[in-house]
Write a structure and sequence with these properties.
alpha+beta, two-stranded antiparallel sheet, 1 helix, 20% helix
């Protein structure tokens, strides 16, 4: 991740979240069902957007090891 206090890109956010959760023994499961997501091309006022459509369900579960 970049050497700053703030996440500035989507990949950095995903990597940071994954590292934090899996470092605690968490399990992440994704299934999609008619999910539509508007994804920005970047940050700021001039960002463009793309619409993503996914099939399945989305389920994110985490748990601490006992």
């Amino acid at each position: 991740m970049a050497d700053s206090e703030h996440t500035t890109t989507w990949p950095e956010l995903a990597i940071g979240l994954y590292d934090k959760l899996t470092g605690r023994g968490a399990e992440i499961t994704y299934e999609f069902q008619n999910l539509e997501v508007t994804v920005p091309s970047g940050t700021g006022e001039k960002a463009e957007f793309a619409n993503w459509k996914l099939n399945g369900t989305i389920k994110i579960s985490t748990s601490e090891p006992s």
